[in-house]
Amino acid sequence: MRWTETILPTLKNIPADAEAISHILMLRAGLIRKLTSGVYSYLPLGLRVLKNVERIVRQEMDAKGAQEVLLPAIQPVDLWVKTGRFAALGEDMISFTDRHKKLNVLGPTHEEVITSLIRNEVNSYRQLPLIVYQIQTKFRDEARPRFGIMRAREFIMKDAYSFDSVWENLDKSYKKMYDAYCSIFKRCGLDYIAVEADTGIMGGNASHEFMVIAKNGEDRIMFCQSCGYSASIDKAECSKLSCEQVSSVKLKNRETLHTPGVSTVKDVADLLKTSETNLVKTLIYLKDNQPVAVLIRGGHQLNEAKLRHILQAKELVMADKAVVETVTNGPLGFSGPVGLKGVKIIADYALKNAVNFITGANLSDAHFVNVNLERDFTVDIWADIRNITARDVCVKCGAKIELANAIEVGHVFKLGTKYTQALGAEFIGQNGKSQPMIMGCYGIGVSRIIAACCEQNYDQFGIIWPKEIAPFKILLMLLNPADDLSNSTAQQCYLELQQKGIEVFLDDRNVRAGIKFKDADLIGIPVQVIIGEKNLSNGLVEIKIRKNNQRTLVPIQQFPEQVTRILHDL
Questions:
Q1: Residue 366 and which of 33, 129, 249, 399 are 20 to 30 A apart at CA?
Q2: Which domains does the chain have, with CATH numbers?
Q3: 325/322 Cα distance (integer angstroms)
């Protein structure tokens, strides 16, 4: 391709609404353009990168024996109602009523659709195991689309689904996809980490997220350099304090303090001139419409995913003002565990040895000080229900842990029979009996990989594409198109590279050399071949490697061999 024949509108300045480095660079490099909030068009170079990622995904999926299909984006809502996910996704689901007054959704994912398809096509254990996948546009009505294509309302995803007859084979299918994902992310040039993860609304009993550590990542992960344990914040285990540990601090008498208008942990701690860890937060939740009191230390954050799992809740929401007042007989903001009746209390392990702590008094503008376990109230359930912090140690080996922002680029799940039971996807086993198929699902954010790659591969001048997903392998820069020798040499080099099957992009624009150099670094093609009059007069061309700015002068006769070697070594 030639620059003069390509839509490639590079930008000098940072767009006003771009925050993340990937969003900034993809706009400036002319890869994407915004249509409306969370919806983007791919320009030629951006589409080439996208197609390269898709090619890698297909190659690795096919190598594992997965079969490609293409499923409808428009889905009847009744499938989602049967699995309970229509209500679970809520406002994230984009739905519409067609002319026949039937409610449909634009698929955010395809578990229901693929299960419905396989239910009708597979009926015997002899047809299993089976893995199918697709690369398809997905739709989610994000409350806050941001960071360009990293969190968009319309995005491209690869989703695969395995169907097995026995649980042992699900483990094998899961391992196949896990290994394929490792190969995909490695080939895409990503520095990734696979972490244990919560299954969320997908369901199932096990999952892993593939995370790319990046400053602008919207997720948080923990990892231990010592033993290798890693997990998402939703899943990361916190140390459990021993029940035998007993504090030697003397128990004090409980007192009531007047705290007018002060209800937050920070404000109460400041007022009483104490640490936030000396406070205990009492949060009232509704678990399947039944109230439950949740206790965690001040300074800690409740982990709703852990809480939902511990309570085995189908629905878990924070109680509103009216419910709080009914449950505690006190105002919102001053809740505490003392005196609660008919309400189950669940507390985080970090409170096990807390003494003389501070809680709400279930009275307006009042807190209790010197509250103590057993004497003042009793905990019904002890559990790990908080987010891990940088001060925690690894639950596996006791070593120091690290926390980091990360971008989720892939997620694999062992779904089990959640969907097949709900939708009646059964098969006849070797024993002649009908039983539900056992599922796994495996998603990759194809478009998100591009943003994640930009977040990890850039410098102050622009993008530095990994070789396999770069829009082109070579950028051929003709500095002066008006010079006959330069022009003819550039055309000859262009043809030679094409004949060798090397993807080459010719910058044949009639603009200043300085503009070409800046644009070249901005769009980030791995190897730049610079054809200028001065070097050419000595029979030389210049080759620059984008990722380290290494420059080499090469005789024109050796040019094809040198470029081939450099590409091989990248």
A1: 249
A2: 3-237+403-454 (3.30.930.10), 255-383 (3.90.960.10), 472-569 (3.40.50.800)
A3: 5
